Amino acid sequence: MRGPSAAIFRANKNLVFERFPTNLGPVNIAYTSRWLKHSETVTIPGHLWVEIRGFAPDLETAIGPFANAGLAGISVIATSTNAAVTEPEVELAFESTPGSKEREYFQSYLPTESSLLHPAREIDLQATLALLNALKRHEDFDRLLRATNQYNLALQNWKLGYATMALAHLWMAVEALTKAALRAECTARGLSGPNDLAAALAVDIKQLDATIRRDFVLHGDVECYKQAKEASDGLEHGYLGFDRVWELSKQVRHRMAHHVRTSILDLSGLSGDPKAKLLSDTFAKPLGPSRVVKYLRGRLLGDRDDLARPGSEYPFIRWATTLKKSELDESGKLQIQLEEKLTPELGEGISFSPKSMEVWQPD
Length: 363
What we know:
Layout: E1 2-3, E2 7-8, E3 14-20, E4 27-37, E5 43-53, H1 59-81, E6 92-94, E7 105-107, E8 121-122, H2 125-137, H3 141-156, H4 163-189, H5 194-201, H6 208-217, H7 222-237, H8 242-268, H9 272-278, E9 293-301, E10 316-328, E11 334-345, E12 351-360
Parallel strand pairs: 2-8
Antiparallel strand pairs: 1-5, 3-4, 4-5, 6-7, 9-12, 10-11
Helix pairs in contact: 1-2, 1-3, 2-9, 3-4, 3-8, 4-6, 4-7, 4-8, 7-8
């Protein structure tokens, strides 16, 4: 399987999840990054590459469960790295039984990787593996895994104009975490169940889930809870205009992401150095899937009204970019060096006066 990812591995590094459970039995899953040769001296990160190996009665039976297992690890990697991983697609499937003289084969033709630059962040291998192992041991594994999936979907919508969809998935992650947080609080207080916890918190049993979401999953951030709930309910039930939902989502999206991701790590039972690494500034900022965008600003000079060159509808500045360098530094940040060339295609007597060239990583 392969697909775009803002979470990347260094060349020749991988992460292996051994004996991941499926309804066909355990499988081994390996994740790595493809690196593309952009020029003789420059390579750039391509798609995330996922390999799943296991036993099945036939190929057709294997493809679905094996692919789903591969997707489960994707959301853990995204949550660990706080970087979007787009759902990969199955490209190849084949039987590899030793000694067979005839083996089943399947291939889906996927688009080749784009050479467009995009923000990327290196995966911490040890901390991510520690997180997966902590989740696998947890009694609420399924709930926590659903929360990581919703968190990754939020990251996939972490781009300009998509704040509403990002917040919607963050709220669904909060809902997925509610029962796990409730059970964890009962255990911490030595209580037998929800009724005892409601009494201890001095709230009506009907308000217990809301209290857990506000005070534990969102760490008592009352304003964040109110705005996120209003935006989520307004979107789901259609009683708020989209502009209002979008404004609320934009205001609270970053705080929600911080609370949700921190709660996933807390509830997983992860501790020590792996947890400290994942909560450090290195992984603090959510990283979406959007490509790097470039803007050119300036003025067209000249007293002619024919701004475009003959045969063209509009004035245009052709912008050619040459990638001179692309590498991961020691801190795991992707460092790039570009060479830019601007060629005006304008009408006779018209010139271009540049004001600024800007390169943006979408927030």
